[in-house]
Design brief:
The N and C termini lie far apart (about 45 Å). The protein has helices spanning about 1-15, 15-20, 25-40, 40-50, 60-70, 70-85, 235-245; strands spanning about 115-125, 130-140, 145-155, 160-175, 175-185, 190-200, 205-215, 220-225. It has an 8-stranded antiparallel beta barrel. It is built from 7 helices and 8 strands. By secondary structure, it is of the alpha+beta class. About 30% of the residues lie in helices and about 35% in strands. The radius of gyration is 19 Å and the shape is globular. InterPro entries: Calycin, VDE, VDE_dom. Keywords: Signal. GO terms for molecular function: lipid binding; violaxanthin de-epoxidase activity.
Length: about 260
């Protein structure tokens, strides 16, 4: 009985759900075991209760709750109600994000340039790009398909540091637009798709813009500078500022993740 009451709490109070109007019958029919597991797990339950206090438009708050309490049980619950059975759709941000895809993309980019380990030294999106200790390793799975493993640190709501890992697959859009890449992953039980546009690159850096989606009408965007080291040379930084300006971006507003305690 307690797990059914918890479901009602989620349905009536969870800010994302309130806007999405979930199919309660669908959730009970297909996801009751995942719901019960979530209720009985303190982290999963805390994630839901935490998000209740975020309101309907504070996405930073919502994702802080996600990142602070996410675990396998939470992922399975979200996967069931959102990804597998579509009992709930993630509504768009308020106001909705409209991606502004730059057109000044690289025309000679080769996927092999990704191979190796990179750190994000500059990031545009305060929610997604600014975690400390972000280290991404790219490998070639087979011809035309690459995979990435990203490690990063989360400062949870309780002040503790949690280490997170994300796995992604990457393909080139097509041979005529080598600077456009397609990323796919499953994070927090949700299917994440994003289009990356390489704005500039060298042997020791890659500057890329991305537009991502969690559902058919939920979009987000950002941009990152990958580097082989924690600092960029003055010449590279000056060049990237001009590239950013040409793409409608302001590099001076980008965050600088810390690597002091990695």
């Amino acid at each position: 009985m307690a797990d059914k009451l918890f479901l009602l709490l989620v349905v009536t109070s969870f800010p994302v759900v309130r806007a999405a109007i979930p199919n309660v019958i669908c959730m009970i029919e297909h996801c009751s075991s995942q719901m019960k597991d979530c209720y009985e797990d303190s982290d999963c339950k805390n994630a839901m209760v935490c998000m209740i206090g975020c309101g309907t438009s504070n996405q930073t708050c919502v994702f802080n709750c996600f990142f602070s309490y996410e675990n396998e049980i939470f992922d399975n619950f979200m996967k069931c109600i959102v990804t597998d059975y579509k009992c709930m759709e993630i509504p768009p941000l308020n106001p909705p994000v409209k991606c502004h895809r730059p057109t000044n993309i690289q025309t000679t980019f080769e996927m092999e340039s990704l191979i190796g380990s990179w750190i994000i030294v500059l990031g545009k999106n305060q929610i997604y790009d600014c975690f400390n200790c972000q280290n991404t390793t790219y490998i070639q799975a087979h011809e035309g398909l690459f995979s990435a493993v990203e490690h990063y640190d989360i400062k949870a709501i309780d002040g503790t540091i949690k280490h997170r890992t994300t796995f992604e697959s990457i393909v080139q859009w097509n041979a005529t637009t080598p600077g456009i890449l397609k990323y796919n992953s499953r994070q927090m039980g949700l299917e994440i798709h994003s289009e990356w546009r390489v704005l500039d690159y060298g042997t020791d850096y890659i500057f890329a813009y991305y537009c991502g989606s969690i559902s058919s009408n939920y979009f987000y965007e950002g941009a990152v500078v990958y580097s082989k080291s924690v600092t960029l040379s003055n010449d590279t930084l000056s060049k990237l500022k001009k590239v950013a300006t040409d793409a409608g971006l302001d590099l001076n507003t980008f965050c600088k993740p810390s690597y002091n305690s990695c």
